[in-house]
Input
Amino acid sequence: MKEIRMVDLATQYQRIKTEVDAAIAEVLTSTQFIKGPQVKKFEDNLAKYLGAKHVIGCANGTDALQIAMMALDLQPGDEVITTSFTFLATVEVIALLKLKPVLVDVTADTFTMDIESLKKAITPKTKAIVPVHLFGQCADMEAIMDITKQYNLYVIEDNAQAIGADYTYANGTKQKAGVIGHIGTTSFFPSKNLGCYGDGGAVFTNDDALAERIRMVANHGQSKQYVHDIIGVNSRLDTIQAAVLDVKLQYLDEYAAKRLAVADVYDAAFANIAGVTTPARAHNSTHVFHQYTLQLDGMDRDIVRQKLQEKGVPSMIYYPIPVHKQKAYYNSMYTNEMFRSTNKLCETVLSLPIHTEMDAEQQTYIIESVKQSLK
Output
């Protein structure tokens, strides 16, 4: 049996090696390493896939969030609402721009923004909401967009973990994650469902004026060369990474289907084990399973992890400490009652290996190892 990894990028690369190597070689031959034609080609292809009018590549997912907020011209002191159960980058950029992060709880089942908590957090200073499509499925975007219309707020989707997921509205219409709000952002970190071989990110929008500002912000605030109309940053998608991503984009739906098949087997295996809760699937979103995350109640998670490690099965905890308990983001206004689901999840979640290259032998071994480690 092959070594079990959380994400098997090595085997994935071998399957697409010929295409990837040719794409990289083309960039090397052209020597257009910055803003080469492969960048626009990938942006256009991703826009077509997502149903977005504009895709603007950038250096990484954190930059994508920062560029989005800068493009909206949010001002110091403006409040931006997001969840406490997320990777810190979501909140970090809010604070870096001297905006005020306002944290809310998530649902206990889908791990995405809790709508009632969101409603309670809105104040006259609220200017934007950043729902996080965590672990591979969408937040309740129809409800969130209804709220933003009521209060005239912006929505920036943090779509780093759910690219390719479909959101279904009450009337049956569908949209891809990341193109529902005013702006969407994503990361192309190597382990993502659509990952490059270094760092990369992108910003999406269907608003022409916003797209122009996003491009300016990402390019030193320039409207044209040496003409700087607004404050900007230097953040661009590397040509080699764009070439790799354009190859992998062709396989994104296939990759999602493979992850879903792995999740289905896990679900069946762990369905009736006391104290184990398998990932819920939102009724209004497909799940692309960036992570497969169990909840372990009434057991010592660290001991389970140690037993798995001894059996050669890796696991991860996303996320052991919520943002509202991080020293850098402490706020006396937060109480445990405000984050009941978040606090519990941080104590109980455990993510298992899930990727496009997992074979039946590996998954059977993982399942049996988990069952033994729970005893």
Remarks:
- The chain has a mean pLDDT of 97.
- The chain has two domains: 9-104+112-249, 252-373.
- The first helix runs from residue 9 to 30.
